[in-house]
From TrEMBL:
This is Methyltransferase domain-containing protein. CDD domains: AdoMet_MTases (cd02440). NCBIfam families: GPPMT_Stmyces. Residues 92-188 form the Methyltransferase type domain. It comes from Nonomuraea turkmeniaca. GO terms for molecular function: magnesium ion binding; S-adenosyl-L-methionine binding; S-adenosylmethionine-dependent methyltransferase activity. InterPro entries: Erg6_SMT_methyltransf (IPR050447), GPPMT_Stmyces (IPR049645), Methyltransf_11 (IPR013216), SAM-dependent_MTases_sf (IPR029063). Keywords: Methyltransferase, Transferase. GO terms for biological process: methylation.
């Protein structure tokens, strides 16, 4: 294995290799709708009429609707980042192809640093920033979100959008607490397993295998946040809101085969989809 200061383990190499090679239509086709490539799931009520109507435009209607739902999810997260000024600096941890970063800049005018261990995603997102004319304010870096190298206290807000399941939360939240200034905001949207159910269900194990990730328990998020001076101020259970997205996706040409595992896990109570906002104290 070639030495790499960003990738610190064999597991991180495997995750990076996965996302460097990833060209899934459920990510790329949706991003082509308006140039915001989100790489996450959706929330909200589905317009089921997209499955009806002329067959020749059915795929386009489905793509537009799935993208609308994932954009609602991103807007929900960005709205929780707190009041931001144009001069504020925020960080997208696990930034993918940049959708949430561009949205934060659009809504708040702030400076955004995106961090990813996928070199291909970083290159893609920086090219998007150039094309959108915001490369002076939105930048993407090939860095490890557990050890970013950014200055202590240099960010007003940080978020993870469905990326926490690739790292140890104790290490992640320690780095976030270092980077956030006092009073700064941390937000994540994540799937977590429900401690009240017991150990991770079979469906969760299938999701872990599909995405090469390790879904954490709900209690681990709160324990590690508080241990690292990130005090939760808002918790929103989005589980019921995300089920319609998965029900629609399962019926489309963009299904990847993992949809039923998500639906089973959400419906049997073993899996929850949460938004957690916390302040750095």
């Amino acid at each position: 294995m070639t030495a790499n200061p960003v990738l610190e383990s064999l597991y991180q190499h495997s995750v990076a290799n996965y996302w460097n090679a990833e060209k899934n239509p459920v990510n790329l086709r949706l991003g082509e709708v308006d140039g915001l490539y989100h790489h996450h799931y959706g929330i909200g009520d589905v317009d089921w009429s997209v499955l009806d109507g002329p067959a020749e435009t059915r795929e386009k209607r489905i793509v537009n609707e799935l993208h609308r739902l994932e954009s609602v999810q991103a807007e929900t997260l960005v709205a929780r980042l707190g009041p931001l000024r144009h001069e504020d600096r925020v960080m997208d941890a696990g930034s993918g192809r940049g959708g949430s970063s561009f949205l934060a800049n659009l809504r708040h005018g702030c400076h955004v640093d995106g961090v990813s261990i996928s070199e291909s995603q970083v290159a893609f997102a920086n090219e998007q920033a150039r094309q959108r004319g915001v490369a002076d304010k939105v930048r993407f870096h090939f860095r490890n979100m557990l050890d970013t190298g950014f200055d202590t206290g240099s960010f007003q807000a940080i978020w993870n959008n469905e990326s926490t399941m690739y790292v140890e939360l104790s290490l992640l939240f320690a780095e976030h607490a270092r980077l956030l200034r006092r009073g700064g905001r941390y937000v994540c949207i994540t799937g977590c397993y429900n401690d009240a159910y017991g150990l991770p269900s079979r469906a969760i194990s299938q999701i872990n295998a599909h995405y090469i990730c390790d879904i954490h328990s709900r209690s681990t998020y709160f324990r590690e946040m508080v241990a690292n001076r990130l005090v939760p101020i808002s918790v929103v259970d989005l589980t019921a809101a995300t089920v319609p997205y998965w029900e629609l996706r399962a019926k489309t040409h963009l299904a990847t085969g993992i949809e039923q595992s998500f639906l089973d896990a959400y419906k049997n109570g073993s899996f929850q989809y949460l938004l957690i906002a916390a302040d750095r104290v």
